[in-house]
Amino acid sequence: MKALQNLRRKVGAMIGGFEGGLSARRLKTFAASRAHVNTLIQAAGADMTARARYLIRNNGYAANAVESWAGNAVGTGIKPSSGISDAPLKDRVQRLWLRWTDESDAEGLTDFYGQQRQAARELFIAGEVFFRVRPRRPEDGLSVPLQLQMLPAEMLPLNHNQLLENGHRIRQGIEFDRIGRRVAYHFLRRHPGDITDPGLAGETVRVPAESVLHIVGPMDAGQLRGVSRFSPALVKLFLLDQYDDAELDRKKVAAMFVGFVRRPERDFDNGNETDDRGEPLLPLEPGQLQTLDDGEDITFSTPADVGGNYESFQYRTLLQVAAALGLPYANLSADMLKANYSNTRAALLEFRRRIEAFQHSVLVFQLCRAVWARWMGTAVLSGQLDLLDYEQRRADYLDCSWLPPRWDWVDPLKDIRAEINAIEAGLKSRTQAIAERGFDAAMVDAEIAGDHRREDSLGLSFGREPVPPPSSVDTGMTGGLQNLEGIAVLPVLGTLVRRSSYIGAASGLTSYHDIEAMAEQAFADPAVRAVLLEIDSSGGEAGGVFDLAQRLRQLAQTSGKPLWAIADEAALSAAYAIACAADRIWLTRTAEVGSIGVVAVHVDESVADAKAGMTYTFLHAGAHKVDGHPHAPLPAPVAADAPAAACATRLLRCRLLVPLPDPNHPRRRSP
């Protein structure tokens, strides 16, 4: 083997090529291992993890580093925003998830977002962490019968390698089947370093892989177990800690000595004052002049300083440690003396890119998505969620965006102005900007709309023009949609019909299609913050009015903008059905509203037909097809049935009308 290595060196020296691959004088002691990362982890992984935990317990820089990493990677939690399009269903899912997060920890010490933070800490310290999925019984009283138990890396022995009789292989505690799939984990029953748990030492238990979440950030292809992020910084941190301790101890010892007395003989008398070893002490007091005997001399202690290079040496060493840990210098040392806006922003941008990559490729992909899928499946099976065709539409129901906590601005004013300029220039959307800050755009918009409605109802205004009361709007207009100080005024005037032409519109007709088109335009306009239906109509056609009312309600709920109505002077019959879609209805002093009902008129033209010499003969199929025609007196049975038919029609329309407003009966307001 040695001869082969010598031959390689000679061939490399003759050929040249890469300097890093040569065995020149400067590289003779550079002996890099060719072993696979799994071999290296098995040999040194446990020691590195133990040393990392020691430094975190005893070294301030190490403790600050792991807290900084966990705080930036997780903060208050990486939270889900369900992609379910059905708003009420999405709200139920989100509320159930929120209740379950408080119950997720099997030990009951924190919530799911606290477990995320613990996972980020363990990944930084040991390079990996395990979660065991624990199904629970319905009688346990959980909102969803599921919990997570976190297990540290030491619970899975690195040296457990075995070939099983069924052809499976156990490698570093992980069992693989014949084609390399993970099928189980062989955990220790107790922590190998916990002496407070008697018995069970060294015993292992096989846990199926579907019940285990192995969270790991691999460095190399084929890597099975994690490596501590402290591994490239352990030596420097430990030696720097020793150097600091030695320097501090030296200064402490030197500071104990004030001076030294030289005398020719040991006949010194100081009034019997001695130290703990019986040596005489020279009494000193402030402002004292000491008289010395012949031959005596005092030399005061002048301990050497640490020198001018102490701070620069520490700074350079900590820079190397910060680079090894992947942290900005200020996050490691909490030293902001050399920081300014430019270098702080540059360092944070690079650090945040690393954090975002870690969040999405490790925490979200390996932990959050897996927990979300397991939680939703358990919620469906336990009956806590009723999701139609869950098995067939599982991917649609599991669609979810995970939102990390927002980043704080270095200079809020500059950064927010830049964000607004990017949105206005079309370089990004509000949805994207809000998601980057860790929030869901739909929820933010709904909250803003709710705040505005509450402020308007109380007559408050924060950072915007107050909404004028509807009584100040000119209700005598006859034109189309108008925007008055952010309020879109939508006219609902005259006789209402399902369709109309330009002649009908000029004749005082308003079509449901035109009202819907104007409403869609108003709710989509970012300059509009509320929509007001200006109604002066005695009603119109029943066909299409309820579809229009439901469409108006849907537009208001989707946009989050309030929908109001003012009856000036009439909102009757079909017009009142449209008004019921509004959040609130205002009435002028003499307004008329209501008149929900059905009316039918029968005109008997038979006498006029006889005088005109005309006789009508109806050819029809269906016993009641021509009931109530005008060319004969109204038969008694038909006349008797007419009120019942009218009542049935009225009841049907009222049932369609009542569910439209929310609450069922809009409040009546008069200016």
Automatic annotation (TrEMBL):
Gene3D superfamilies: 2-enoyl-CoA Hydratase, Chain A, domain 1
Alphabetical list of SUPFAM superfamilies matching this protein: ClpP/crotonase (SSF52096)
One Pfam family this sequence matches: Peptidase_S49
Stretches assigned to coiled coil: none
Ranges for domain Peptidase S49: 557-635
Highest taxon in the source lineage: Bacteria
Assigned keywords, A-Z: Hydrolase, Protease, Serine protease
CDD domains noted in UniProt: S49_Sppa_36K_type
PANTHER family: PEPTIDASE S49 DOMAIN-CONTAINING PROTEIN, PROTEASE 4
Family: Belongs to the peptidase S49 family.
Protein's recorded name: Phage portal protein
Species in which this protein is naturally found: Yanghanlia caeni
